[in-house]
Design a protein that fits this description.
Largest sheet of chain B: 5 strands, antiparallel
CATH architecture of the largest domain in chain A: 3-Layer(aba) Sandwich
Distance between the termini of chain A: 22 Å
Strand content of chain B: 25-35%
Chains: A alpha/beta, B mainly beta, C alpha/beta
CATH topology of the largest domain in chain A: Peroxisomal Thiolase, Chain A, domain 1
Order of helices and strands of chain B: HEEEEEEEEEEH
Number of strands of chain A: 12
Structural class of chain B: mainly beta
Radius of gyration of chain B: 26 Å
Largest interface: A-C, 62 and 64 residues
Helix content of chain A: 25-40%
Number of strands of chain B: 10
Largest sheet of chain A: 10 strands, mixed
Oligomer: heterotrimer
Number of domains of chain B: 1
Strand order of the largest sheet of chain B: 8-7-6-9-10
Shape of chain B: elongated
CATH superfamily of the largest domain in chain A: Thiolase/Chalcone synthase
Amino acid sequence: MSKSNSFRDVAVVSVASHQTKILSEVNEVQLMADLISNCRNSVGVTQEEIGFTCSGSSDFLAGQAFSFVHTLDSVGAFPPISESHVEMDGAFALYEAWVKLQIGEVDTALVYSYGKPSAGSIIDVLATQLDPYYVSPLWPDCFSIAALQARLLLDKGLITLEKMAETSMRSQKNGSDNPNAVRSSKDVSFENLMNEPAIVDPLRASDISEIADGGCAIILAAGDKAKSLCERPAWIKGIDHRVDSHTLGVRDLTRSPSAFLAAEKAGINTDRLDLAEIHGMTSAQELILEKEFDLNEETKVNLSGGSLASDTMMASGLIRISEVASRIISGQADRGLAHATSGPCLQQNLVCILEGE
Amino acid sequence: MTDPNSPPAPLSQQVKIPESISGLEPVRSVRSPIRLVYDFVPSPPVQEYLRSYSKKKILGHRSPIDGAVFVPPRGVDPRHGVLIEESVELSDRGHVGNFCVTHLPIPGRDDLDTPYVSAWIHLDGANVGFLGLVAGCENDEVHIGMRVQAVWKKEEELGNTAENILFWKPTGEPAVPIEKAGNRAWDQTNE
Amino acid sequence: MSAELTAVLGVGQTKYSSTRGDVSIAGLCREAAYRALEDACLDWKEIDAVVIGKAPDFFEGVMMPELYLAEALGAVGKPILRVHTAGSVGGSTALVAASLIQSRVHEKVLTIGFEKQSESNATWALSLPQPFSVSINAGAGGYFSPIIRQYMSRSGAPELIGCMVAFKDRQHALKNPYAHLHQNDLTFEEVVDSPMLWNPIRYSETCPSSDGACAMVLGNEASGDRAENPVAWVHGTAMRSESNNFPGRDEVNPLASRQCAADVFRQAGITNPLKEIDAVEIYVPFSWYEPMWLESLGFAELDQGWRMVEDGTTSLLGGELPVNCSGGVLSSNPIGASGMIRFAEAALQVRGMAGDHQVDGAKKSFGHAYGGGAQYFAMWIVGAEKP
């Protein structure tokens, strides 16, 4: 449905992102003001010219109800703007903006998202994301839940500890070229990774994403507008998202059917992929996703280091899209898949296929 | 219109309660306390503001676009989304732009006697207001445009917090006319 | 390519009350969703996507509840989005759902807003200490009362206009079986004598805190044509936001509100709102916002909106422009759903399905929601005929 050719051509024309271990020199509002201005300025559009603005963020992450209200100040909403917000990863805000552009009344959209996970305790915060009657009162932490999933995969022989370490190694090596990566190492050793003690068995520290503060801004434009703003727009050829059951015991945690379905609906099954940016909290999850997307050796996975290298909750998915888009815009790649996830054990997934021309 | 109190549709499959718990009273609610700890690190503009505040100086931020002064300083001009770098020291006198008389107690503020007046204080030199308590007069004397002055905590009690100003008290100066009070002041100079 | 016509195929609401101890959060949502599907004569599996909205997660203490609710809302295998735009969320959620239809991405969308305030601790949620500012606002009323005071002094409105709005809305609520407050014996004097909370707002002039959910099923033109029950056709949709504190801001009549209204009226081809709109459902959590919004939206001249309250124009009983026949936010307020209830009630009016609070012959109606420091606005216009 979402990959129908009758859809309006919409492309990413500009991206800006920043991630760091702890955001301290500026607050989120200043960070986003900077990123959003850069994003607009690099294609020469003003906020008044932007047709629709959409953002993603989480109150629980920020420790404040209505936290997104402050960040509206980063946009410069004067005169008033047509704007909306989802309490989800910015990738879903991008989806909402893409839908808006499909209607045809506006030609450009600004999407942004941010997070400051360093302020709170991610394991406590994410425990509140679970079923409030049966599960959350037990306060299961997100790493243990992800570890359960990894254990299931190992026991079923679907992955190995070696494969997990290889995934971690790939992330650390690739991340060394990415200024946004907070965990990276050019010469990380496989042996060291294999010998790391488990934080939550079977997950070692390197198997778990490294949290980072940061944000991302993206500008979308449609048709001729995109061509006038950018020499080589990253066209969204397909975009879709799906969700699985929440109850952990109800679904097969060694799989992510919603990731598979989203990829199918987004039109993954045509032509090859030069690159893929996939978003998971653990190396085991990246392995699940590679399988669901049927990625082969020709596709370079997580050249940015992925979320394993730098995981900003609420922005990691949007950043994956920005990583694919920027490589297409610069001519380094022709076709890529960007993915975002939400919820425990890859419960909800968004897939976006981008292509240069 | 359906009956608002109509019962939910029956389940497609009857739930079978295990014999061992069939006689137990159902649990009707669960109370699960949540405690979350966050470290809020003030950004440099706020740090600068709080440090000055502890010395009884109020800092504002001046917009590079048109010189509008925002207080407290947030590092960004919200109309344009541009960073503000210039700090400016403001006086601790101003006027009431807007106010209301509150009869409800605030959780955690046992020091406040109800009813009290909370007002939007527009400092001289600033172009937006911020919330403050007005006291030192009868509640029904407070009016839009009333000139006020900060009453600070004692020297030894000052700290890097927003609580350094206890309240704002009337100065007795002639009031700012309503058409020029609060946010209306900006309209006048920039039409 | 122009937008796909969007129809409201079904509306479902739960009885709003202070405590729905008989259902969990999922049960509450499902009740509204089930009723909306019934009204639309559709089955769960015919829904393509779900869009859910609610006020801050901190209220119920459940982070991103769309994840927990995926199964309850029949969303497994489907797309689900969760909108959060402060108080206007119920309205903007409906607009996001509508855009999925208008864009032809989906054909039938279930949209829902909810709040289970009895399972939430709003005081805790709103009072997480922010170390850099003093907390002296005892609730939203403390924020809006100064603005109302400004309106009163600017317009010269008589002091009891607010009480008249509160009384009228509670009278309307008696004709809405879903409303939370059913104050059968309320007299106008009781409204006036109610304790003052934030001068000039009395207890009787504020909204209750309710549990509840409101759902709609939206469909494309073909589903609207096929529908068994009458549908409401979307004639216009608009959202606007502005910052809540900047030099020269008009808090009484925010520019975002005026521009949002102008946009939605332009889309719907309406040049004389007072004459062309038959029923209005606007977000009035504190009584005085009725005349204030009527002016801002263009139903009344500036500083004159209060006259429409005084002379009965906004009453269901013979008024020219009945406002909040459902009882409004003043009679039922599950925050996350309140905006959607306005949109849904507007739809019920033009479908002729508003029961005892039906405005006779309503052909076009207006739904409105606002949030934040009166800075987020979502509006729609629906009609009995296609636009």
